[in-house]
Each structure stands twice: as C-alpha cells, then as structure tokens.
Design a protein that fits this description.
mainly beta; Metal Binding Protein, Guanine Nucleotide Exchange Factor, Chain A; three-stranded antiparallel beta sheet; 1 helix; 5% helix; binds zinc ion
Length: 125
C-alpha cells in the first residue's frame, strides 16, 4: 500500500508506505490557524519526501502546543512535520491524495473548539 501526498502547488511530494498508525484532529487555535488540524501519524521509516525539501519552512511550537508546523514556501500549504527527526510524527491529512485507509480516532484540545464549529456531521450526498 502506497499513499501519495502533496502540497497545493505540487512542489512538495511525499509517499507513505503502508497505512499510517492513526489519524486525529486537534482543535487548538494554533492548529486551526496554521491549517493542520486533521493529521495522520506516520513512522519515520514509512515516510519518504520525494521532492520539495528546500521549499519547506517550519514553525516551532510554544507550550502547551507540541507540534512543529511546516508549510510550503511557494503555495502556503500546511504540511505537518515532514522534516521531523522523531520516530513518529504528524502529517496534514488534507495533503493526502490517496485514502490512508484509516479514519479519525481521537480529538485533542476539544475545549478550544469554537462554538461555531459545532454542527451536524458532513455526510457525502
Ligand atoms: Zn506548494
Ligand atoms: Zn493543535
């Protein structure tokens, strides 16, 4: 199983070998503003950056927030942590071009979820 992903302009391309370990959604204001709130967690050995490493700009977190957030310098797409040295790290689920084969299994910082974000589930017609 190979799951491809990319930024909006296509400069950053990556491949995830085999399905990610989990998918979660963070409702903190930082993740919402930086644009990576739904993420898949990948193991370093299963993640390959195919192109665009020189385009990736990272933003370090301030406590209590814990995830580095990166974006493509050309198009602004939020990527997650594709340059992480950790064993497991988050990648923006919105960058995936293929179905990762898993679904959202947890939510973080739910107390920071804005009231306007409450509503009916989006169902595909
Ligand atoms: Zn881009
Ligand atoms: Zn967050």
């Amino acid at each position: 199983m190979e799951i491809k992903g990319s930024c909006c302009c296509g400069a950053v391309q990556f491949v995830i070998d085999d399905r990610p370990s989990m998918m979660g959604k963070c409702h903190c204001s930082r993740c919402r503003k930086l644009g990576t709130s739904t993420m898949v967690f990948v193991k370093r050995g299963q993640f390959r950056l195919v192109s665009g490493e020189d385009k990736i700009q990272s933003v370090e977190p301030q406590p209590p927030y814990k995830y580095v957030r990166s974006y493509c310098r050309s198009c602004g797409t939020s990527l997650g942590e594709p340059l992480s040295a950790d064993d497991t790290f988050p990648i923006n689920a919105h960058c995936l071009d293929d179905d990762p084969g898993i679904r959202i299994s947890f939510h973080e910082f739910v107390a920071e979820k804005p009231d306007w974000a409450q509503g009916p589930e989006e169902e595909k017609a």
